[in-house]
Amino acid sequence: MRRRRIARELRQLRERAGMTLDVAARQLDMSKSNLSRIENALIGIKPRDVRAALALYQVTGADAEALIEIARGAQQRGWWQSYSDVLPEWFEFYVGLEAEAAALRTYEAESVPGLLQTEAYAREIYRRTAGEDGLERKVAARLRRQEVLRREDPVHLSVVLNEAVLLRPVGGAAVMAEQLAHMSRVAQSPNVMLQVLPFVAGGHPAMSTPYVLLNFADTADASVVYLDNLSMGLALEDVGEVLRYSLLHEELCRLALDPAASLIRLEQASRYFA
Predict the structure, then answer these.
(1) Distance CA 155, CA 102 (A)
(2) Contacts of 61 (CB under 8 A, 6+ apart)
(3) SS (H, E, C) 129-196
(4) 210-247 b/e with 16+ CB inside 10 Å = b?
(5) CB 233 within 8 A of CB 93
(6) pLDDT in tens, the chain (274 residues)
(7) N or C: which end of the chain has fewer CB within 10 A?
């Protein structure tokens, strides 16, 4: 998040100063491609280089010091970086966004979202999708992510689950019984809204795409749509795309059972695994 904020501010300041990438890069003694990557948040920038850029763009005083302080914070390692041996870089990027989010909205068609998984369920999901390599560290990282639901200012989570998720026996009856009971407990937290999309709802507009929508407390931080698969992740920041997925989530919430009825459906599903 800090890297994105610095990138946005530096790009806007350069444009306000009337400088092209070429001109600014030469003045800052860096390549055009490097400055472009900084402005697109693909790589970080050291505080001293931020200071040099601000001087070039004639930004001084409190505004300059605030951005330099953000740059210092951006150099601090997030907890997820200690799991870089088992988390691909593209997913580390997502976890960093998730850790800073104020609200998450998501739809899952095949499995319980990572933030709601039990240890046993997470272990079985990783075993099925990625094998045994680094299994326990991957599970530990997934459980660590769930702290966003329990922190002092917890993330607000809206989940729509395909009904099939409740009935697919991942890891056997005992694992599923524990998982469903865990979701029922978490769904009663004031910051969590869980809705089940029943089979009787028929076709729906998210049939081809699970997604996560991330919103942030600071309105200056653009919302993000995150999509991924086994080998890559994609973050969409375009305002039109974010609006499209926001409307999609609203439609799914309308089609899904309300939270109270969803809890009843969770309890009914748990009987299959009793």
Answers:
(1) 5
(2) none
(3) HHCCCCHHHHHHHHHHHHHHHCCCCCCEEEEEEEHHHHHCCCCCHHHHHHHHHHHHHHCCCCCEEEEE
(4) bbbbbbbeeeebbbbbbebeeeebebbeeeeebeebee
(5) yes
(6) 677 888 888 898 899 989 999 999 999 999 999 899 888 877 778 888 888 888 988 988 888 888 888 777 666 678 888 999 999 988 988 998 999 899 999 999 999 999 999 999 999 999 999 999 999 999 999 999 999 999 999 999 999 999 999 999 999 999 999 999 999 999 999 999 999 999 999 999 999 899 999 999 887 778 999 999 888 899 898 999 999 999 999 999 999 999 999 999 999 999 999 8
(7) C
Which residue from 176, 166, 252, 260 is spatially nearest to 210, judged by alpha carbons?
Answer: 252
Q: Are 145 and 198 in contact (CB under 8 A)?
A: no
Q: How many residues does the chain have?
A: 274
Distance, in Å, from the CA atom of 73 to the CA atom of 53, rounded to the nearest integer, reads 17
Please tell me whether residue 117 adopts helix, strand or coil conformation: coil
Q: Are 187 and 266 in contact (CB under 8 A)?
A: yes
